[in-house]
Design goal:
This protein has a five-stranded mixed β-sheet with strand order 2-1-3-4-5, with helices on one face. Strand 3 and strand 4 form a beta hairpin. It is built from twelve helices and five strands. The two termini are about 45 Å apart. It has three domains: about 60 residues, Arc Repressor Mutant, subunit A; about 90 residues, Glutaredoxin; about 60 residues, no CATH class. Helix 2 runs antiparallel to helix 3. By secondary structure, it is of the alpha/beta class. Bound molecules: FE2/S2 (inorganic) cluster. FE2/S2 (inorganic) cluster binds next to helix 5.
């Protein structure tokens, strides 16, 4: 990750729009008297959303709103890569370079970024792109991945990443999530576990023989079963559910019934 420096090009002042100020006041109210500093991250995020990045006057403004020393706010800003102290491209790309993504080819994605955009924090002449390497973004099961503005693009290859950048540049719609066709973080090939089709029976289907044979003792562990199966059991043996389950588990089952 490259070090962040404050932009030399600063606005004369910053203040929240009326709407954002009223939102900020609501956030501050969530914290007990004397703990208003706890609202610093949401307020900084809102300021960045309003201005596009965080100029120094915005940091001072938030410090004043929260009764904090500006340096304390600056410490927060410089700790998190989600905050930018200088302008970024319309599409701000955060590339994860931590171990799982590295092992799955993030270096190849860095090469794509350098070829198409340039070095980190450089903004392309059309203002469309800039990028930054960051630490794990919590989508390791779909490595390698990038975050573009507020969306994750996962399971990237050199080819799919090139196409993604081309589509953004051309103004074409793009779809966040895995870029290799798999659903969420489901197995990339054939499923190797939870392959019993009855686990996924639709509401109204006859419960499997195994479910029908379950007694009250087995139902005591019903909260560990997949939601569809829980509903099936609840329909088959409501009396057993009444006597064998804890109030918390019953409430969870009622919720599942409502969802299905
Ligand atoms: S290592 Fe890349 S998302 Fe976790």
């Amino acid at each position: 990750m490259s070090a962040q420096s404050i932009s030399a090009d600063q606005p004369a002042s910053f203040e929240f729009s009326a709407e954002n100020l009223s939102w900020a006041r609501e956030q501050i109210k969530k914290y007990p008297e004397g703990k208003q500093a706890s609202a610093v991250i949401p307020l900084l995020w809102k300021a960045q959303e309003q201005h596009g990045w965080l100029p120094e006057p915005a940091i001072n403004y938030i410090a004043q709103l929260l009764g904090m020393a500006p340096i304390r706010v600056m410490e927060v800003v410089t700790f998190y890569t989600m905050f930018n102290l200088a302008p970024v491209g319309k599409y701000f790309i955060q590339l994860c370079g931590t171990t799982p993504c590295l092992l799955r080819g993030s270096d190849d994605l860095v090469a794509v970024l350098k070829k198409n955009i340039g070095e980190q924090r450089h903004i392309t002449s059309d203002g469309l792109f800039s990028w930054l390497e960051v630490e794990c973004l919590g989508a390791c099961a779909n490595a390698p991945m990038v975050q573009i503005n507020n969306d994750y693009f996962e399971d990237l290859s050199t080819e799919s990443f090139e196409k993604l950048l081309d589509d953004l540049k051309a103004g074409r719609d793009v779809t966040p999530g895995p870029q290799n066709g798999r659903s969420c973080s489901a197995p990339a090939g054939e499923a190797t576990s939870l392959t019993d089709g009855s686990l996924y029976a639709a509401e109204g289907d006859t419960p499997s023989a195994g479910v029908q044979a379950m007694g009250a003792d087995s139902l005591a562990n019903v909260h560990e079963m997949p939601a569809k199966k829980v509903v099936a059991v609840a329909k088959e043996e409501p009396a057993a559910l009444e006597t064998s389950l804890s109030p918390d588990t019953k409430a969870a089952i009622d919720d599942k019934k409502g969802e299905n």
